[in-house]
């Protein structure tokens, strides 16, 4: 007898409440294996590929591409016993959060201590007598349909399409996400005619019902010169983070124009060095190294204001964030423990980080826990700006474009490579003297890389 399992949208990073379906890698009727990638989703932090937690056959996709689904809402139904010969499977175990020091493994594998790896965290220890029932929560597994099973191959009956009886005798067909949408928008499903297969009410049917009363007459040009894009995913998260930061931390921004000709000359020499021959050393790599050296003299820019504990947290490490523009919006992946890296290691890390970000493959974990950020507006030909501090940090440096400009050297006006820097800092944590000293140190190191020997 078929055994249907529903896979709910997981919380792929701490605190996420929803995610958007980007791409399905399976369709109804496909056989799937444990750990096989079945769907790619976009959270408020990044695009994430989700593996399948069971072996079986896909019976229905419960969410469409482009649909935003709340955490905990089922997105796919899988028949884990399509042949009808296996014993009924146990209900899926809700994953426990992973803890520091835990060794990860593939889904379904037994880990040290007898625990079974699940999508996030680990399940119960092997040999447990029974799982304690959860209160006030419906089981994830759903019963097979009551209708008899036809031996010939037929399209599977989707368990979630079986609706709850409603007053009046008529039972409209709709998936759980569509029912929730209708409830939130105040739409009576019994008044709609489904446009989906077998009369199933779709998300579009509900949205059209909401829009119908306010639709402009057909003779009116209602938007041929306008385009509306829903605010969601990375854009939504970025907007909220910037608003929170701008109206929480008192920003101060200082500017410095510097001659980086010596830095560019050193960069040219490094290209001929065997150690750097296959490494892409950019001005951003030099700026990152200068920041890491300057932090040692002004650790306040690497601290955090903890309002809940009424404390300033000073950190003896630097997780360096690099603001990156991607097709999905602005993301800030981190180089972990960047302060321990040499210039070569830093250059390699930055190159890999940029490639991953452009491909939209930066994981949520790689965008959390930063301590200082650099935004390279110079790649767009911009001289400088007033960057907004990332939430949880105390400073951000903007690196402007490097231009050939007249500069006074030993009383003579000569052409030099000139760049502008802008430092925004949280005035609750960083005083003006500290911010000015830090910016001056970064500028000095880029103007004369030899000063690094004295730090």
Automatic annotation (TrEMBL):
Transferase recorded as keyword: yes
Molecular function terms from GO: acetyltransferase activity; lipoic acid binding
Pfam family, one: E3_binding
Limits of the Lipoyl-binding domain: 4-79
Cofactor(s) the record lists: (R)-lipoate
Top-level taxon of the source organism: Bacteria
Keywords, comma-separated and alphabetical: Acyltransferase, Lipoyl, Pyruvate, Transferase
EC id: 2.3.1.-
SUPFAM superfamilies: CoA-dependent acyltransferases, Peripheral subunit-binding domain of 2-oxo acid dehydrogenase complex, Single hybrid motif
Transferase as UniProt keyword: yes
GO cellular component, one term: cytoplasm
Residue stretches making up the Peripheral subunit-binding (PSBD) domain: 173-210
Similarity-based family: Belongs to the 2-oxoacid dehydrogenase family.
Name under which the protein is recorded: Dihydrolipoamide acetyltransferase component of pyruvate dehydrogenase complex
Organism: Umezawaea tangerina
Lineage: Bacteria, Bacillati, Actinomycetota, Actinomycetes, Pseudonocardiales
